[in-house]
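Just curious. Invent one:
>
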Amino acid sequence: MDMRQLKYFLTIAQEGQVTRAAKLLNMEQPPLSRQLKLMEEELGVKLFERNGKGLILTDSGELLKHKAESLLLQFDESLREVKGMEEGIRGVLSIGSVVSCISLLPKRIELFRERYPQVTFKISEGDHFYLGEQLEKRAIDLVVARLPFEAQKHPQQYTILKLPSDPFVAVIPSSWTDYSSKEALCMKDLAQFPFLTLKTDKTTRMHEQVVNECKRHGFVPNIICECSSVAIIMSLIAGGIGATVFPKSVMSSFPTTVVKMLDIEDADFQSEVGILWLRDHYLPKRAQLFIESFRSDL
């Protein structure tokens, strides 16, 4: 059995049908069916069971799928490492970022591009769990995220470079004229506002941090909306629906004409930020240098 056959098998498993897999692989169905039969004969097991017009993996097939994905990732990683020895600082740098950290990237990319103009960028946005999956699949090289990284399954899974922490600020509608001349408020002032919170089903750390700080000041926020999107929350605030507490760096990505940012006088809680990448795996030189550009400012 070779890498080519493993790719055939994985494509069939992905599509759940030989016909669709053959189309995706740009080959005829009969040769692909023969390859599958040869694999099953070599292994002495059935890899698929028929389910109506489709195919589902047997237990043996599931095991092979897991092992084959791991093998192909290692193989592709080895090829990229060998090619990287001669290619110089060029190619595509794939970065994952949570929305609340996107504002940390533009200036850094601008400076990096001045130094390494042959590097281009691919940026993916998502929550911790999506970005963790993309790292595992080697679809991205590194992640910029709030810490702790909630998708972390094992303490030694990632290498993390901590960046300067980010103070929290209150964000309210500009239309709330009682605060138009103010630059700050007290934590307890937030108790009177309808509150919007950034939270997904799986990523809850920032939400919990803000709620706990409210409780420390003697109140529970009046949460009227939980939302997974920073942009949607900012739109709701601009529409006068309510207020929120965000890391200060988030605000640089949004116009301050329709929302107002206020420092919080009696609270000094911070959002931790970091860059992380897979430990003990190949990291392209361009990714290493991008990380170093952050490290040099610490």
